[in-house]
Amino acid sequence: MKKLFFLFCKLTKNQGFIKPEFSLRKLVKFFFIQKILRFNTKVSWPVHWSSTIVMPANIHPGSRCPGFSKWCHIDGRNGINIGTNTWIGPGVKIISMNHNINNYHQYIQTEPITIGDNCWLGADCIILPGVKLGNHTIVAAGAVVVKSFPEEDQIIAGNPARVVKKTTVYQQS
Q1: How many Å apart are CA 53 and CA 58, to the nearest integer?
Q2: Domains along the chain?
Q3: Which positions are annotated as active-site residues?
């Protein structure tokens, strides 16, 4: 089993994203879907077949696998920086580039999206271009984040998102 695991890591050019706690069955399934069936083939970390990753070269994924949950859309054309231990729920949309409102064929260049360490993006939340989230920011399910929240230890929710609660400092395990 361990030989298969290390072979899989070598074949997928693993950059530390494949953890030993992932089941071998799940890893083989993701390898087959990404490398054989060619879904998200240019992404260097495991991605669920239903998720879409645009321009993975501009995404710095941190220590976890963005897009590992179902139905995520992560658009890195303008750049996305994700901190370590950031959890991304199913259906999350991270969109780093927007259209010009006077010419839909042109895109607006903004700062890359930056998500701090120890963050949690709840199911179906949306992060829009130029947003910066501080360390240990929890984005509630369904929230639409249109502006930056650089402070640490907070929960944001709503449409548009706002701070609803301050939390204690994140406890490393």
Answers
A1: 10
A2: 1-46 (no CATH), 50-166 (2.160.10.10)
A3: 99
